[in-house]
Amino acid sequence: MNTDKLSGLKIEPQQKQRTQKTFWSIVITVIVVLLLALLIAQPWAKDSRAAAKNDSAGKTVSTNSIAATSTAVSPPVTTGDAGEKVLTVNGYIINRERIEISPRFLGVVKWIGVKKGDAVTNGQVVVLLDDTEYRARLAEAQGQLAAAQAAVSRDELNFQRIENLSRTDIESKQSADNARLILEADRASVQAAQGARDLAQTYVDWCTIRSPLNGVVLEKLANPGELVMPQSFGGGRGPSTALLAVADPQDLQVEIDVNEADLSKISLNRKCHISPEAYPDKTYNGYVAEIAPEADRAKGTLQIKVQILNPDKFLTPQLSAKVDILKSGD
User: Fold this and answer.
1) How many CB atoms lie within 10 A of CB 29?
2) If pLDDT is split at 50, 70 and 90, which confidence band does 71 have?
3) 216-237: buried (b, 16+ CB within 10 Å) or exposed (e) per residue?
4) Strand 244-247 versus strand 320-326 pairing type
5) For 274-323, how does the pLDDT look when each residue is reduced to its tens digit (9 = 90+)?
């Protein structure tokens, strides 16, 4: 019985050969499939690498185009000289000179021909004062001058007549001397009358007030009909001391307060860059024009004024600005 079981488990040689053939067939088939897969995948990899290169090139071109576009549409910026900054301080734009036009004497405003913001030129008539009184004084002085000149003409004739008679002993030499002295006195009266006439004319001319410079009216300090005088006599409601405030818009500075610990970084004529807070993209060249001779003990600062070179319409007095102090020699 055991022999029958062993005979049933025995494998015939023909079956062994068929099993080995089937195994190698499967192995060969797998190898062929793998080779075909590699051959098919290689062109796809090349195409993928080419596509990636094209994509990167496209991104580079588009980036350059965007950069070029942004450069083309960006607004022009006024830039200064390049330099290393050693200190940055904030301050305020001011007019280097603010001139308040005042009358030379007590008077009443008759006419003002400008308003705040108007441009004025040197010598332009801006204010007229009431000149009625001073024209009357001028007429009086002219009359006195004419009378003195007539007296001189009369005394010249009298002196000549007496001098001729004194030569023939009809008149004494003393009479001739008296006539000569009277003539000299009348000539002196003529000079005094001419001085009075010139003074009256000066007051009349002073009633016409002109601008002393080319600039802009910063403030209108009086109105027609108001009483004005050169100097106030005290009190908050006294007569006005000025008529107009004018300044040159092309002569601007930045006033800054520098901490005493930073004073070693500042010197006269040191180059600076100025940027108004209202237009931070604009930069102007300048230099340290003035250093105060006395410090503010309470704040521990020293006042510095920086002159702005070539200011334009974007710089407005009393606006804040940033000042970069540059390294010496830049």
Assistant:
1) 10
2) very low
3) bbbebbbeeeeebbeeeeeeee
4) unpaired
5) 999 999 999 999 999 999 999 999 999 999 999 999 999 899 999 999 99
Average pLDDT over residues 204-220: 94
Residue 39's CB is within 10 A of a number of other CB atoms, namely 9
pLDDT band at 25 (very low <50, low <70, confident <90, very high): confident
CA-to-CA dists, residue 61 to 4, 55, 65, 70, angstroms = 86, 10, 6, 14
Assign 3-class secondary structure to 148-169.
HHHHHHHHHHHHHHHHHHHHCC
Confidence class for position 136, pLDDT limits 50, 70, 90: very high
Classify residue 283 by its DSSP letter.
-
Tokens linked to 148: 């003195």
Q: Which two tokens stand for residue 9?
A: 């488990």
Three-state DSSP class for residue 79: coil
Q: Identify residue 115 by its one-letter amino acid code.
A: K
220-225 contacts at long range (C-beta below 8 A, 24 or more positions apart): 220/112, 220/114, 220/115, 220/116, 220/244, 221/100, 221/245, 222/109, 222/112, 222/127, 223/109, 223/112, 224/109, 224/110, 224/111, 224/112, 225/108, 225/109
Two structure tokens written together for 66: 């965007």
* Closest C-alpha among 181, 184, 158 to residue 171: 158
Residue 216's DSSP bridge partners are 119, 247
CA distance 276 to 75: 16
From residue 202, alpha-carbon distances to 87, 105, 111 in Å are: 53, 11, 19
**What Cα–Cα distance (Å) separates residue 114 from each residue in 105, 120, 208, 299?**
21, 8, 14, 40
- Whether the full predicted model's pTM is greater than 0.85, yes or no, is no
Q: How is residue 288 written in tokens?
A: 């340290």
